[in-house]
Amino acid sequence: MRTMRVGILGCGHVGGALLGLLDTGRAEIAERSGVDLEVVRVGVRDLARSRSVGGEASTPARRTPSGVKSREEEGARWHQRSSYPDSRFTDDLFSIAEDDEVDIVVELIGGLKPARELILAALCRGKPVVTANKELLARSGRELEESSRHSGRSLLFEAAVAGAIPLVRALGESLVGDSVRRVIGIVNGTTNFILTQMAEQGLSYEAALSLAIGLGYAEQEPSADVEGYDAAAKAAILAGLAFNADVTVDDVYREGIVAVTNDDIALAQRLGYEVKLLAVIEREARPGVVGPEKDSPRLSVRARVHPAMVSRVHPLAGVRGQFNAVFIESDAAGELMLYGQGAGGLPTASAVLGDVIDAAHSLTTKSSARPVFRRTVEFLPIEELRTEYCVYIDVLDQPGVLGAVATIFGEHGVSIRWMEQFDLSGEARLVFLTHIARESDLRATLADLEALAVVERVGQVLRVHGQGES
Amino acid sequence: MRTMRVGILGCGHVGGALLGLLDTGRAEIAERSGVDLEVVRVGVRDLARSRSVGGEASTPARRTPSGVKSREEEGARWHQRSSYPDSRFTDDLFSIAEDDEVDIVVELIGGLKPARELILAALCRGKPVVTANKELLARSGRELEESSRHSGRSLLFEAAVAGAIPLVRALGESLVGDSVRRVIGIVNGTTNFILTQMAEQGLSYEAALSLAIGLGYAEQEPSADVEGYDAAAKAAILAGLAFNADVTVDDVYREGIVAVTNDDIALAQRLGYEVKLLAVIEREARPGVVGPEKDSPRLSVRARVHPAMVSRVHPLAGVRGQFNAVFIESDAAGELMLYGQGAGGLPTASAVLGDVIDAAHSLTTKSSARPVFRRTVEFLPIEELRTEYCVYIDVLDQPGVLGAVATIFGEHGVSIRWMEQFDLSGEARLVFLTHIARESDLRATLADLEALAVVERVGQVLRVHGQGES
Hints:
The structure is a homodimer.
Chain A: E1 3-9, H1 13-33, E2 36-43, H2 71-77, E3 89-90, H3 93-97, E4 104-107, H4 115-124, E5 129-131, H5 134-151, E6 155-156, H6 159-162, H7 167-174, E7 180-186, H8 189-201, H9 205-214, H10 223-226, H11 229-243, E8 253-254, H12 262-270, E9 273-283, E10 299-311, E11 323-330, E12 334-341, H13 345-364, E13 377-379, E14 386-396, H14 401-411, E15 416-423, E16 427-434, E17 437-438, H15 439-450, E18 455-458, E19 462-465
Parallel strand pairs in A: 1-2, 1-4, 2-3, 4-5, 5-6, 8-10, 10-13, 10-19
Antiparallel strand pairs in A: 7-9, 7-11, 9-10, 11-12, 14-16, 14-17, 14-18, 14-19, 15-16
């Protein structure tokens, strides 16, 4: 059995966990996978920092949905406490990417720069690269793929989208002959934790965010999560995989959860829904084209991230806390859902390790990288989305107001499926669930409503997925 | 782009659906995957039979859990109605397996004979083989794998365990560097449909089975499903993948659902559980060994299929109807669940197609088959299982009976966690939930109870998974 020499760039939560898994599990991994993996070099930015290897730094104690102690928590126990950093550590990152003694490069430093240059340098030297860098893939995925194709070496990124959930293999291999219609994901654990705390414990958004920061689930500067940037990057990668499309994060419509209130959640629950931050990518169903698009020159795709009301009978509604799940609808396979830990040091390291073993096999079997094919697609703007909406409007409590409001809905062709009026002090809150309507029509409706003298406030708009129980 | 010539053995539900996908989707598949797949030969047992190609014969109209029309159902619409059989059809199956004009062989005839000989013949001729034959893999997997290794050609079987659910890639690739502790699956859609109908519609077992037969979800002779043989074969394959163990169906403990009554289900629901037929494979946790087994000579594994009470808060409890799901617990990745359609022509054909594309890539990139490593494992008998149990006993309604019964539990060291007594006419039903106990002790307890004069009947024993809400 030939030893494959691994160089790891970055030794944070994920890198440290991976190093622990490889150092302590080497014999077991070799026995199971047939490849002997030795970490020969570890690149860090600051050699002076002490290292916590084995995953525990990344893993605040947590309880899983089934109430048992997290495997991650227990798993951390069996990693040796070694003295890191050791002689393998260096702060010269490029020396690892270009080292002839390194067979496989793992990029876990994150961010755009110098991660991009490091990956390109490693591929250029004929080394397969494993990365979990969603931000970079969502910006420069096409360039990195071309470099991979040019070098004939794999660029693997199972860990970049949903941590331990084997989503990249599912979309890129299992379903590559099928025709995916839509992928709906809860792909950001931080926001799902916050929304779950708001829904189940009644915490305010601010209190839930503070709790998430305290538990280490959110950053002190949380905008990447709560504004939806992280989910949008993942949506771009998912769209690329599902539709073989060239998608960047700029092609993704994005709203975060900062405007979601406890009132919104309570109302949703009353109607049989949960509020979730969804990443949705979908192929547009065009009239007359129900099968594969072989006769159409282009594929029409929409990618969007926003809070939504998810029917309680939909499997995604039950995904709680920091867990992730991705629901896939495809022509032949039907409905699939993959659920698991979308972040955390050890879960993400597990996915990286699966890719490292893949890369090692590609070297031992001398197989070139599996080619990736990209198609030109048309991106559909959010304004052309057709879905159901839930919206509320606070109005002066006067006779005739509902008539005026309903008239405006009607003028824009937005049909109301359900309406309820709640008394506020001196005002009334009108809550509407619409039938399927076009986003541009709904927006025009809301603009006209805001101009109405009796309308005090137009509330958060929530797009609706699935049937409620109302 | 080189054309890869595919030979399909078997044109039933799955084979017909695959033929439809490949015939109508050829251009789309080539565009997405970069391989041009042409079905050049189709082997059937009876050439005279007319063929229904495209998946519709296998797909009774169904509603999915989220209430939308099944993709399978809709997908069937866009397949061309061609006149099958055509000139590619033959009833000489071996001529396909041995045909030099066939690059990839897909075995979908099922059963042991002649499937085994056909697969061996194809591998021997240097052709990669894709199969969905769980029965054969659970009997002769080792032999087929060795033939694959010897020929250097892939033997792929994603569709054999859970239809469209990408479980084989998850366990065999994504998690191959991780250490799987336990896999719990609902892997038989027929029995899950029956149990769901019993639980939700109050149908008797017999009525639910009749409905399943009428809808095409169960065979007229349903024992492979309802006696747990199908699930046991899948458990053997899962155990092989999860633990790199050499497992056959004979190593799997098996109980079916024929003894499950509406009373059992109602009782379980009252306690916060759903009754499911589970396939459970697990590594035994031995004291002192919490990490990878690098110092232990053997791995201790148990594989079992039986009805069980699943806590309503566990994600598996919500898997309804003919859907399948597999819950994986592993050291680093933590908890994962994969959910989808475990059977049906089109979903299974989708998984087969993913493997066919994999096989085509292995031919174009000239890569040899990814090797599979097997370890010697020790199989733990069901008698050594330690879990919680729910059992009920119908007794004569006399004073002192509970004391006598409880004494027998105590004599065998089976500790009672909860007990409730229900009045029957002239009798009483005592329902017990135990703390964790050893199966052999529970069995000894029940044997002694049966010998007791006041005991009229010992009911179905249900093993308990997870915490209920009682």
